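Q: Please design a sequence for this.
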């Protein structure tokens, strides 16, 4: 399907002291439709604080939070303005920048089930991003698994899976995944890759957002570093924690990695709103690239990947973890970390006996790192404490139904 044949709807929010104005801009109308939702600025900001408190604690309640009437009122007009399958551009304002509005349900299913959803800081930025669109996506630069403590269990696997989907991959891993090397590569005049993908730990600095960035082998690649680049990439993917968080300044100007990447020339970014789970993130992003290489747009690829991830069972994910571990050297720290992940999955699938046997063997193993041994003891204690709950579970239950796993990533910029 060509970009010209896709209907695009723009939904812009404006938060005031007395309510939230919603502007719906559709191709056929001469002027926008305007609605008001009675959620004040103070109420919205308090609600967002509640949401991030759930992320730090009771994540299982996220779906109930997103299904609340106040948030559903913010997305309900989209049912009238956009038909299923239309691309919906959201222009958040104020604290709405930090909420996953694409995960708010309409008629019992997330908005992202109905429509591909993309974000843009403003309509003017959107036009700029569209002008940066590349005709092809054949080359990729993958920066992954810099030395870290704790190590990223699935980072190398994700890097390999992503690189195999491109005709011209370039991979920087381990010590080669360095800030100095990357900056030299991107400033060398060799041309920007079509896709730039990071799998590394991310950090958001709320006090100094321009210091937010990606932790690489020799230091942090910051938003300030990115502003100094000329980055003609069609897509930049930050498979890391909190990579999409930004600080708001007067005029609702966003300061952070996303805006820095768009300013540097990237047509679009795929970034996260909170601290992500490495396993579900790796599965989501690998599927995203598979959909992209199959010819789908970036927005549709993300929508399909999110839907696919929500449908995976514990048995599906366990098979994936076992396949990854089979490629690693026995007894290596990475293999042991993956074995811990496998034990967790076994417990969630109801096989408590096998999970506890793995934990006990790890706790008794000689030469095991103190951090891994402590993690095995802690996880074993939790499984024993809730053994009856785990034993009632089945491998056929869905592994990642909650928004914490499938909803953190948002596409900003060009949708195509």
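A: Design:
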């Amino acid at each position: 399907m060509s970009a010209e044949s896709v209907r695009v709807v723009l939904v812009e929010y404006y938060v005031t002291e007395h309510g939230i104005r919603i502007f719906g801009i559709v191709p056929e109308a001469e002027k926008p439709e305007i609605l008001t939702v009675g959620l004040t600025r103070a109420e919205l900001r308090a609600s967002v604080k509640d949401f991030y408190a759930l992320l730090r604690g009771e994540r299982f309640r996220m779906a109930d939070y997103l299904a609340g009437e106040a948030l559903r009122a913010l997305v309900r007009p989209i049912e009238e303005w956009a038909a299923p399958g239309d691309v919906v551009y959201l222009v958040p304002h104020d604290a709405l920048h930090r909420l996953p509005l694409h995960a708010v349900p309409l008629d019992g299913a997330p908005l992202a089930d109905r429509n591909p959803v993309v974000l843009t800081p403003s309509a003017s930025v959107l036009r700029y991003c569209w002008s940066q669109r590349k005709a092809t996506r054949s080359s990729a630069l993958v920066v992954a698994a810099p030395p870290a403590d704790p190590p990223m269990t699935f980072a190398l696997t994700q890097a390999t899976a992503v690189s195999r989907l491109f005709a011209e991959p370039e991979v920087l891993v381990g010590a080669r995944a360095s800030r100095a090397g990357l900056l030299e590569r991107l400033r060398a005049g060799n041309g920007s890759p079509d896709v730039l993908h990071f799998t590394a730990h991310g950090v958001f600095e709320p006090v100094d957002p321009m210091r937010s960035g990606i932790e690489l082998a020799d230091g942090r690649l910051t938003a300030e570093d990115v502003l100094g680049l000329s980055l003609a990439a069609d897509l930049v993917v930050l498979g890391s924690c909190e990579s999409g968080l930004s600080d708001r300044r007067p005029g609702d100007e966003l300061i952070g990695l996303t805006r820095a990447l768009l300013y540097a020339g990237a047509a679009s970014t795929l970034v996260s709103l909170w601290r992500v789970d490495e396993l579900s993130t790796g599965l989501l992003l690998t599927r995203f690239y598979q959909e992209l290489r199959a010819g789908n747009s970036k927005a549709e690829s993300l929508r399909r990947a999110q839907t696919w991830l929500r449908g995976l069972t514990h048995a599906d994910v366990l098979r994936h973890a076992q396949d990854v571990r089979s490629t690693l050297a026995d007894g290596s720290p990475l293999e042991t970390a993956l074995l811990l992940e496998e034990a967790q999955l076994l417990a969630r699938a109801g096989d408590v006996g096998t999970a506890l046997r793995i934990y006990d063997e790890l706790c008794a193993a000689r030469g095991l790192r103190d951090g891994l041994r402590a993690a095995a003891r802690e996880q074993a204690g939790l499984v024993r404490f809730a053994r009856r709950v785990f034993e009632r579970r089945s491998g056929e239950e869905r592994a990642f139904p909650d928004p914490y796993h499938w909803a953190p990533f948002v596409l900003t910029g060009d949708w195509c």
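Q: Thanks. Anything notable?
A: The chain has three domains: 3-115, 129-312+407-413, 314-391. The radius of gyration is 22 Å.
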